Amino acid sequence: MPFKFEILKKSKKSKARVGKLHTPHGVIDTPVFMPVGTQATVKTMSPRELDEIGAEIVLGNTYHLNLRPGPDLIKEAGGLHKFMNWNKPILTDSGGFQVFSLAHMRKITDEGVEFTSHLDGRKHFLTPEKVLEIQAALGSDIMMQLDECVAYPCDKKEAKEAMERSVRWARESKLKMSNDKCQMNVLFGIVQGGTYRDLRKQSAEQLVEIDFPGYSIGGLSVGEPQAEMFEMLDIVTDILPEDKPHYLMGVGYASDILGAIKLGADMFDCVIPTRLARHGAFLTYEGKVNIRQARFEKDFSPIDPECDCYCCQNFSKAYIRHIFGAREILAMHLLTIHNLRFFMRMMQKVREDILAE
Amino acid sequence: MPFKFEILKKSKKSKARVGKLHTPHGVIDTPVFMPVGTQATVKTMSPRELDEIGAEIVLGNTYHLNLRPGPDLIKEAGGLHKFMNWNKPILTDSGGFQVFSLAHMRKITDEGVEFTSHLDGRKHFLTPEKVLEIQAALGSDIMMQLDECVAYPCDKKEAKEAMERSVRWARESKLKMSNDKCQMNVLFGIVQGGTYRDLRKQSAEQLVEIDFPGYSIGGLSVGEPQAEMFEMLDIVTDILPEDKPHYLMGVGYASDILGAIKLGADMFDCVIPTRLARHGAFLTYEGKVNIRQARFEKDFSPIDPECDCYCCQNFSKAYIRHIFGAREILAMHLLTIHNLRFFMRMMQKVREDILAE
Questions:
Q1: Which of A73, A326, A328 has the CB atom closest to B298's CB atom?
Q2: Contact B300/A at CB under 8 A
Q3: What ipTM was estimated for this complex?
Q4: What kind of architecture, by CATH, is found in domain B4-270?
Q5: Alpha helical stretches, state H, A77-127
Q6: A134-148 pLDDT tens trace
Q7: Which pLDDT tens digit goes with each residue over B118-135?
Q8: CB distance B47–A310 less than 8 Å?
Q9: pLDDT over 70 percentage in chain B
Q10: Contact between chains at A330 and B76 (C-beta distance less than 8 A)
Q11: Ranges of each domain in chain A
Q12: Cβ-count burial of A330 within 10 angstroms (0-12 exposed, 13-18 middle, 19+ buried)?
């Protein structure tokens, strides 16, 4: 099935919308939360459990998969879907963000970015073309262009240079996609510009001019106040075509996501639900709560009596607290199931609320 | 359902037999392998996955559960079955073996054993009565008496004293069970005696005289040669009543189990399949193999094409090797599923072969 974005309903109260994103590996209901499968697995989860919690798409990290096991091996396995036994859509990032946050001794030029692997210290060079070749080998449904993400705070000169370089790389990426034939997957351009209104505006305008089937908003949720993130997003979604999907990268907490949906964002990913689970925290509408707390010692009720996940339907807080304290893997696993299902149910409710307006 | 052991078929070639063990929580096909759930979970496995791989009974460790979360909490939760959400039979050991192998500064007297917790250094005292009270609080279907296990090699005097003390404790345990009314669960006596033929013989004879609904053979697979283990087992099963189940504790490797079945052993438990999995090894009929080997880098075939487990049906060696190398929990989990299923299928085949004789 070719790529298509279909808007089912626009909110009357905000820029929120409910849609369906058609991809080669299936249809995604938006707004959507995408669990992160950094190293070809969503941490602790098997693919059938991802199915069960209602995941419709997962994210793979190009930076990690490029270093290990490498795109050639995954291609030989028949692509990332087959390799990890996940038959629904996959979105891959470009590796840019990880290069900026994980890699050592990175050197950015107009040609691309050189970095030292966090695994073995070997030097690598990523270019706009190279990251597309890697993602094509992975066979992801939705690919990202190489971009340059800046930290927060960042002075304007630096933010401007990074944004302009990202736009140039967007153009080169689009060209590369046009030259390669028979590709089922699509490429998103990425809006940058730090927390500068005019830079965000210019970035969005220039990307729209290049014309992508979908747009990502990068470089947010990197330390700036929520209000500032929302302001940037608002400016950007006013410019991006309404009939294209908007992916707010790496966001985030429930309150970030709920606010961003009202500003027209459709797609989200974040390691928060899975990472918190491995640290013993479960998600509730009132925020995160740690299972290790003494008050749960003899609490034989589930984490959330309303939740339909395997964890909440079968295990008590006292039990999970015990196995977490005993460092049993099942504890991290059950909490991950709950936290991901919590996000899935939250998105489902958001979609239903908009449809019911 | 009350406890009952039913022999369906005796082998014509050996002392092997196929049976059904009826317990309050269901029927177990013997010979049976019991996955070990030390801390109220079989490491990495959820109860529904244990069901799926065909586990009919799991083992809980009294030593660990007594220290954390404690028998009172588990009793308040409604017993171990409810606490860990496992509705099939549970066998608990007495904690004796762990005291001898894990605990520090243990002191054995005729009254019981004093030891220092490996968790917090607090002193504990276990008596034959106390371990039954703990196991009753856990609500296990099959309980073990407190016994004294000796190391290998062990001089005869020490082995004799430990055996005689274990027999005295067996008598006290039987008395305690007779005095407590309305108990659904049953108690097994434990044969000791090191690797001394006459001590093993005396131990078995005296336990038979006390009369238990089932008998365990302890203190084997502690370092002695396999031939010696088999010799001891052979002596013991000649003495134990044929119509009672024989549980060879903590054994073991596939070849140990297959040999022991021919000598009349019905029940087995061992951490080998789960522990090996966490170290990257999978089980085959040719022995254990480590998934990290370079030859599996591009091996896109399953661990065992004949195996019906979730791991073998859905993932390649190359994938598992990759996620194991990336320290992903799913790797240990998938290998555990395979290794336990391997043992389950092995036992199933043994039962079928005897029935088909």
A1: A73
A2: yes
A3: 0.97
A4: Alpha-Beta Barrel (3.20)
A5: 80-84, 96-101
A6: 999 999 999 999 999
A7: 888 899 999 999 999 999
A8: no
A9: 99
A10: no
A11: 4-270, 271-357
A12: buried
